[in-house]
Design a protein that fits this description.
Length: 264
Amino acid sequence: MNLEHICIEVCNLSKEVGLFIRTERLSNINIQVEVKGLHDFVTHVDKTSEQKIVDKLSKILPEAGFIAEENTSTKKGDKYNWIIDPLDGTTNFIHGLTPYAISIALKENDEIILGVVYEIGLDEYFYAWKNGGAYLNGNKIQVSDKKEIKNSLVATGFPYYDYKRIKPFLETLEYFMVNSHGVRRLGSAATDLVYVACGRFEAFYEYGLSPWDVAAGAFIVQEAGGKVSDFIGEKNYIFGKEIIACNNLVFDDFLISIKQIMNN
């Protein structure tokens, strides 16, 4: 299997579907919104985009199954499965804000081997394949070289349905507001992760996320030289609904801070 070739095909697919999403945003003043759950929204653009992605990926790798946010396909592959978010940042999209992104990862058994995140607002496609490094619009990227949290810019996301851990989460905001360059909340976890990969952020953390939010971006961070874990330093960040992603120099200290606050 030529992972580099497949990765480029997925980048081209993402840009094609991204053009559809951008066009829909510009041509529809009032986007029709359905409510899936508390603060959890979906539009016809999400569903149509996912169908376009599934149809094309089915041709690129016919034997692969899908783990897709809108359940456009429930096919499960024996070895390969695509993990898809057709529009990460739907709330931003609804309100005419950026960023919002397409996120696509390929899982071989239990390992991610390819990831693509296309941030539509800035027309930036981030991508990586196993042992191939990470790239932004054709240029190789790597995580930043900041060594301390005090010199780091931190990204996070606010929980939108699971508020059981809201008190310790708010404590983390206070801690990083005081002890870093600042905290940003963009509204797209996939974008936050690739911004860590290219050095715009030093660290990102969030809980309550789904596999399609993080699979591609977390993989790209790792191929860019960063580290990723759950809140206790283990590897259950794709399906475990919590994630830390940092450059390799601040990771240990950042993990200690999250452990002390979030796991009390």
